[in-house]
Design a protein that fits this description.
4 strands; four-stranded parallel sheet; 43% helix; 2 domains; Rossmann fold
Length: 223
């Protein structure tokens, strides 16, 4: 959330606070005539009831800005489903896209290959038209919204069934089925990744604390 660079314009704790920024980045792409560049914006289903969501999509469509809006719909926002917060929630993202004259894609957010194919098609379409697109990725979350959310609005059986849809597990099974990988190579990869994580933690623990005079170096905003 707190990382910022020329290509990654930060994360924002305020819901939908980043949508106008992403829309502005898309305006930059158009203004500078960067025909091979687009702006990509990720947000959750809790954002769609906010006015800024509609304002951003409206101006992006009206000005034909190359912004790819990606809605990660885990169905719960923080802990309340859309059916309790939206007056007309069924297929709401698709209706919104149609209302603003935007192309719409609905993808299986738990399926890597489905997402790859869908995003590839959307990207190519946007490069050709230079118009915004709304993508809805239907997904699930394995835990509560935050460390303070015990997720009591779902039963243990529901969560267990969801865990079986883990995209990593699904992709692993797919690779095994096609013979791209073997159980042995999988175990080797997991072992190597685990070792890298352990080494990174060790280095972080052993590294010296920064000099207080350099704490705010390269910091854009410090609250």
């Amino acid at each position: 959330m707190h990382m910022f660079s020329k290509r990654m314009l930060g994360g924002f704790a305020i819901v939908t606070g980043h949508l106008p920024i992403a829309t502005g980045a898309a305006f930059t792409c158009k203004y500078t005539n960067a025909k091979d560049e687009i702006s990509v914006c990720f947000f959750g289903d809790g954002a769609v009831a906010n006015g800024v969501f509609h304002e951003s999509l409206n101006i992006a469509s009206m000005w034909e800005l190359p912004c790819l809006y990606v809605l990660e719909n885990n169905k719960w926002s923080m802990g309340t489903p859309l059916c309790r917060t939206m007056a007309n929630y069924k297929n709401f993202p698709e209706k919104v896209a149609a209302a603003y004259g935007m192309e719409f894609f609905r993808l299986n957010g738990m399926d890597l290959l489905n997402c790859y194919a869908g995003f590839r098609e959307a990207h190519q379409h946007m490069l050709a038209t230079r118009k915004p697109i709304l993508i809805e990725c239907i997904t699930e979350r394995f835990r509560g919204h935050s460390i303070s959310d015990p997720g009591l609005y779902r039963s243990k059986d529901e969560v267990k069934a969801i865990l079986e849809q883990d995209p990593i597990i699904l992709m692993k099974n797919y690779c095994l089925k096609l013979g791209i990988l073997t159980e042995e190579s999988m175990k080797q990869m997991e072992s190597e990744c685990r070792e890298r994580v352990v080494e990174a933690v060790k280095q972080a623990d052993s590294d010296p604390w920064p000099d207080p005079q350099e704490l705010e170096k390269d910091v854009f905003v410090c609250n």
